[in-house]
Sequence to fold (218 residues):
Amino acid sequence: MKLISHLFIIPFLLLPAGVTGQTSAWDRWDQEVVRSLFTSRGIPYLNEEEQKVILFMNMARHDGALFAETFVKTFVEQNQVKNSSYLRSLYQDLKSVSGLPALIPEEDLTAVAQGHATRSGETGHVGHQEMQKRFAPLMGNPYDAWGENCSYGYEDAISIVITLLIDEGIRDAGHRKNILNRNYNSAGVAIRPHKSYRVNCVIDFGKRNRSDLNQVPY
Fold:
């Protein structure tokens, strides 16, 4: 599949498997708003799904209530997600999320994510091995804070983002908190094969101490 080059084809490329052609999830989203949130569009070191991971996270951060009513609802219905306490708490949390800064893709964070996703995939490991060591060169300059999400078994962006937001079984919903953390303004994403779970996705977040946060890199 070719990289996205025009916004008008997004509805047909981004819907979860099994719902291609259903554009209802997009009907309530203004295309200019989506375009402004697609900070990863065309970034050469991200593939199509990695670009879309950042887009979906940004949509949830921009208007959590609308994201819940559209994409989360569609995903839950199509995948028959159980109505657990985690799902209910996600709906509740998203109601209060609005106007968080869009995550800007960064090559250094992406390199950290790529390294961890590749090593985890080759060894079959899960988790955040040597996290402090991996982030050490970036701390203080240019990042004041950082975090990491890891997903296993999902290769499409919408499944990666929404399952991390639901965070089923994670007591403190730490993955959700990372995605919706208002302090983060930067991200790197890597989706790679995994020995045990077929595929894994690593998302690395950062709070970049810079003055150009309103500049969109395209």
